[in-house]
Every structure is written in structure tokens, then in C-alpha cells.
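Known limitations

Files may contain more than one protein. Parsers should not assume a single record per file. Below, a two-record file is shown to illustrate correct handling: read the sequence, read the C-alpha cell line, then continue until end of file.
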Amino acid sequence: MKVLVRNLDRATTEKELSELFQTFGSVQSCDLIIDKVSGESKGFGFIEMPKVGEAKSAMKALNNSTLGSNKIRVKKAEGKVD
């Protein structure tokens, strides 16, 4: 299951984000979205967890929790609309 994490502190690293979600189960991938011009985080990213149950418990526990100096928002990632 792919999970969207929004309102990330710009200093948050992929390693920190991945480790946070690993407390709930295995993480298949972790991708922060980086601004091409500045090279800085855009403040959101995606986590992919192979087990739906683990992803759901991570979403429930981490939504509105604090990471760094920001309160993050966590929800199921929706597919792109063309």
C-alpha cells in the first residue's frame, strides 16, 4: 500500500521517515519529493508498505503526529488522474 505523508519539516530525511514507518512493519520504499530548482524537500513524500494491515496501523498512529517541528498528515495515496 502506498501512503502519502504531507506537511513534512523541510529538514526531514528519507532515512528518518523510513525509520518512523518501520516501527509498524516493513517498508518497501521511501521517496521524498525534491524541488528540482532548489534541491530542497517540497514537504511531502511517499512510503510504500507491502502489508496493508501494517500500512493502515501506521496511518492511524502517525496521522497528526509530530515529526521534527511539524505536525504531519498521513493518508492512503490516491492514483494519479490523467
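...continuing to the second record:
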Amino acid sequence: MIVTDTGVPDVHVAVDEWGAETMLRLDDGWCSAIDRETFLCTIYENRPLICREFEMGSYECISERKEQGVTSC
């Protein structure tokens, strides 16, 4: 959920049934801001708070990458 105004471009924002703003997910569940070739965030400077708290290279990051079949960082 987007809880602070970091400047996430509207094209990457979805509004749920209760009116809360969230990051847009594509049909396959991927965040719309992720570049599929580099696996980097295309809006890094404007990423929401939740993404800022999800530290790159952390246990959670590595676990999620493994689960998604992404082996390179």
C-alpha cells in the first residue's frame, strides 16, 4: 500500500475496492515498475515506503528472488 507521497507515477498506481492506493501488479503478479530484463526498479527514486523498507540483498529479498527463480543480483 502506498502510504506516503513519494511521487510514484500514476501509471504504476492501482486503487483497491476501499480506495487505498497500491502498486500496480501485472496479470502475472509482477510489480509494473520492475524492468524484466534487469530486475531493477524503474522508479527507484520515487518508490513507495514499503519498497524502501524492503532492503536489497536482505534475507527477504534473496528468498523472494529464489522463489521467483531469479538467481542473479
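Parsers that stop after the first record will miss the second one. For reference, the second record is described as follows. The chain has a mean pLDDT of 86.
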